[in-house]
Amino acid sequence: MTKTLADIKKSLDHHLGKRLQLKANGGRKKTIERAGVLRETYHAVFVIDLDQDENSFERVSYSYADVLTEAVEITIFDEANNLIVVK
């Protein structure tokens, strides 16, 4: 199934406020893993509030193109911390 940037945004819009874990390409064979809450979606980016006990900064943002090109992989959890979506 072909995904578009609009499809990715719509999917993330349905999961606002839910916990997630993401893996991002950090370059030079580095992978960054972070956990937090999907806080907001904008026209071109989405914002994640990070868990403060694991990170030195409060939030990060990524573009929908990062998800489309698989530079960022998102795993979203429901209220019982069961895996519900893997992008």
From TrEMBL:
It holds the Pfam family VEG. One of its GO terms (biological process) is regulation of DNA-templated transcription. InterPro entries: Protein_Veg. This is Uncharacterized protein Veg.
